[in-house]
Amino acid sequence: MSADETQSQPTPQRPHSKEDETCVWDAAPMRAALHRLGLLEAGETATLTPLPGGIASDIWKVELPARTVCIKRALHRLKVKADWFVPIERNLYEWLYLEIAERAAPGSTPELIARDTEAYLFVMEYLDPDSYPLWKDQLRDGWTDVSFAADVGRQLATIHSYTAARPEIARQFPTDAIFYASRMESYLEATARVHPDLEAQLSSLIQTTMHTKHALVHGDVSPKNILHGPRGPVLLDPECAFYGDPAFDLAFCLNHLLLKCLWHPAAQSGLLRCFEALKDTYSSLVDWEPAAHIEERAARLLPGLFLARIDGKSPVEYITADADRQMVRRTARALLIAPVSRLSSVADAWATTLRS
Cβ(3)–Cβ(96) under 8 Å? Predict the structure, then answer.
């Protein structure tokens, strides 16, 4: 198989209507693709079960006669309240990212099996949640393993280092428009519309992110897209992959560790230790630019992402109390108005807010 297509692993959080739900979970295109790809022969049967995953794709567990696999198909309209449309061609580049990441860090992605480039779907191995629990679920339950957080930082830095200053890889990802629509417009531009007094700061973050071209960026390094496998982290869902600023991946992941302090208050100290472990391990492996440079970009970007998960197009589902939202807004706004250059300073500001 060649390497130039991809897709995503989302989390269907709440269908908009019965009509939407029927459309999202229509198994017929999946069965047809399995036959086209030669994974299901005439006369054979397969059991397809829809799985939770995200807002941007359909994902199914498929029990074939010989093995169990996953099949994923990109959606044009994402499953959120706001009108959010993203090109389904991102499916092509997710496949490509997974191929490259596996070369960079063996074992960091699921095995790829087959793809249908016309239907914008692909088939990969099924990773049983009993052996590959979702990191997000573990954090929800208060499980804050500092060594695993460090492994995530190590894996991320390894992929960034492998792809850094590689124009041949950059050429394979003409995906700036997809990344912009998926991340810059829906996160930072949408947030600027809610906070117009911060438009200059948020626009500056967009410009820096879009014009810094150092390495291959996953674009959605979130605990919901990281499995805790027997041999370490397994990355899913690089549907926003583009060749750009690796600081985005670092800030995006660290952002979730801060936000989850409100989801599981008893785990706050553990979550902040995970933040430090991931950051420190990642920084120790930066070899494509001075580590202080990427840390400064991440420290400036993180507050924008922090605020975006409250007031952008994709607010986190677990922060529901207005008092908690105001805590995020207060911390993020202060850091956007007076930026810091160290990620620890961002964490310290959040810890101070949590204690207040």
Answer: yes
Q: Residues 227-280: pLDDT tens digits?
A: 999 999 999 999 899 999 999 999 999 999 999 999 999 999 999 999 999 999
Would you state the pLDDT for residue 1?
34
The Cα 221–Cα 238 span in angstroms is: 8
Residue 86: the pLDDT is 61
Q: Which two tokens stand for residue 280?
A: 């420190």
Q: Which residues of the chain have pLDDT under 70?
A: 1-25, 53-56, 76-87
The SS3 assignment for 271 reads: helix
Run of H or E including 215: strand 215-217
- The Cα 283–Cα 346 span in angstroms is 16
Residue 279, classed as helix, strand or coil, is helix
DSSP letter (8 states) at residue 198? G
CA–CA dist 346, 84 (Å, integer): 30
**AA letter at 15:** P
Cβ contact 221:168 at 8 Å? no
The model's pTM is: 0.88
Are 79 and 15 contacting, i.e. CB atoms less than 8 angstroms apart? Answer: yes
Strand partners, 199: none
* Residues 258/345, Cβ–Cβ less than 8 Å: no
Q: In this structure, are residues 294 and 246 in contact, taking their beta carbons and an 8 Å threshold?
A: yes
Give CA–CA dist 74/91, Å, rounded.
6
